[in-house]
Amino acid sequence: MTNDRDHFSDYREQTRVKHEILEKYLKAYFHILKNHSNELIFIDGFAGQGTYNDGATTYPGSPIRALQLIADDSNFINCISTIFIEKDIQLFETLSDSVQNFYHNHPEIREPQL
Fold first, then answer.
1. Cβ-count burial of 82 within 10 angstroms (0-12 exposed, 13-18 middle, 19+ buried)?
2. Are 103 and 111 in contact (CB under 8 A)?
3. What does residue 23 show for φ and ψ, rounded to 5 degrees?
């Protein structure tokens, strides 16, 4: 049996496809919602560690992908807040580092909450 931590050391095809679907869905959904409100909140309730690392390569997980989507679109920068939740303390610490590093490099977005 594997634990939640093991999941983030194996970036499988199904995970890649899930992330592609998430990105397409979020972008379309954010565009629809921004026409109704300039105060949107994206909550990732099972954020994990924010990245996947198979030893040779680091892949962005859903938290970093959502933040990148927001940072890449000037329509989203000032209207979307993010909240990332992770109960496993070890995963949370890595998540916190990943998210804070992203924010440090993209201070134009709203500060993510952990």
1. buried
2. yes
3. -60, -45
